[in-house]
Amino acid sequence: MIDIPFPGGAKDGDVYFHKDNACYYHAALNSWECRKVDTSQADADSYLTTQDVNTLPIPLDPEIGDEAVVADGAPDIESIYTQYDANWYLASEIQNLRNTYPDLKQVLDEGNIADKNIFLTNGEDDLIDLSVTERRIVMGARGEESVPKFELRHYNGIDQSNASFEIDEGGTRLDFEAEGKIDNMHFRFGNQDKLILNKSGDAVFEGKVQGVPGTQNNEFVTYGQLLTVEEELEQLAPSLDRGTWNYTSNYPPASGEYTLIKEILTAEAQETLCQLEYTTCLLEADGDAAASTACNRTLAECQLAIDADGLVVTTNKFEEATSIEFNEIDSNNVSHDFKGIDPDHLLDLFNESDDSFGIFDINSHDGGLFSVEVMSSRGTAAGLSTLKIFKHEGSVDFDQYVRKQGDKMSGSLTIDSGKELALYIKGNADSNATLFYARGLADTTLFRINCNGQVQAGNDAANAFMATSDNDVTTKKWVESNTVKAGSAGIKIDIADNGVYYITGGS
């Protein structure tokens, strides 16, 4: 026997190979049994199990110490010396992990209750958070091209319906999408529809809709505002057609536009204009050969541009309009066929941006082209304009009506409301702005009320308030100029026979 050292100390059953000797340690005898290996049988089959393969001892965790153990039936950490022991230890630990963190199959096998949060992520940009503790489902995405989406799908044979809501445009837009067989969306309370959005047709509100009254352009109006429509000539007759169009000087007007036509020049009239322009050009050329040649070219170009069907000349002045043409599509993309309109109807057109307007008697019309006669007008067409076509009964003098958008009156006005509030005037936020003022014949201000509550007389001294009666209102300037300040000698008060006080300086 020879003394063979063994790393870490030999244990019973340890095997040690030294050159062509194989040694086996007997702990009871504290000795090695060594035998020479017969290499002549090297090609013969031999069997080696994990119990025959030694490994170095596994050091203990310094924070746990000697108390470190594995699951029941597995060797202690400090007892692992063969691969067999190591495999057993790892299998036991894996089983412990499975018992602690069950996989999806185990969860499904055990039931539908999970008390742990679940995170599904690609580790970079996308995340689905199923949180039990926070009672939420979060689908997150990061980056300009990422679109977090919640989607529902329904299949019926080859037909499919998709519904989703998502955050698009780099996180700046929320979309509700419906595709496939979905024809409408219902918003309900207690299985009762409140709002229905249809793929084709109009949206349906099952009830009243409330909102802030509109003040401009495409904002909606309220019932209260509609009660004042009579101030827009609605008291004359119900309107047959109405809408809004943008003014253009181009002919023909494009979608959402209208134009005022001053005249339509015949081919003969166009030729006359060409000749007039040619004559003027020759006079300015004054015999210059090159300039005269240019005049000839200009005449030829003008004659080539003559429109045999008539040249339309447009204008922006309501008073000059002899015809008005509207595109059949208005600015709100609403189609108009202009049916049922005859010479008994009037056409009312006014700007949304100012007080310019035109009221026209309709002579004839062909679709959106109206031949008209001006009845009343002011200013020029510009921007968005509102059209109203209505029928009048008998003779109507439109100069006798005041327009809601602003107008002038030449006669007196008496307000007899029969109620406590007869007149209400509302100013703006600028405290220095004038709320109300009165002017004299010379157009000088006699009386002014500002939005800050100040009441002022005219800026002309001749028009200042002169207090002559007991209840007259006077001005600060008048009081200062008609009050004598007490001097060193004091003041003197005289009372006349008629009871008037006279205050003068003196002793």
Describe the structure.
There is one protein chain. The chain is α+β, with helices and mostly antiparallel strands. Among the domains are: 15-100, no CATH class; 226-266 and 310-400, no CATH class; 418-464, no CATH class; 465-507, no CATH class. The chain is built from 6 helices and 25 strands. It has helices spanning 83-100, 104-110, 223-226, 267-285, 289-304, 476-481; strands at residues 15-18, 21-26, 31-36, 118-121, 126-131, 136-141, 149-156, 159-168, 173-180, 184-189, 192-198, 204-205, 239-247, 257-265, 311-315, 323-326, 345-351, 357-366, 369-378, 384-391, 434-439, 445-450, 455-457, 491-495, 501-505. It has a 7-stranded mixed barrel with strand order 13-14-16-19-18-17-20. A 3-stranded antiparallel beta sheet has the order 1-2-3, with no helix packed on it. Strand 2 and strand 3 (31-36) form a beta hairpin. Helix 4 (267-285) runs antiparallel to helix 5. The model is unreliable at 66-71 and 233-238 (pLDDT under 50).
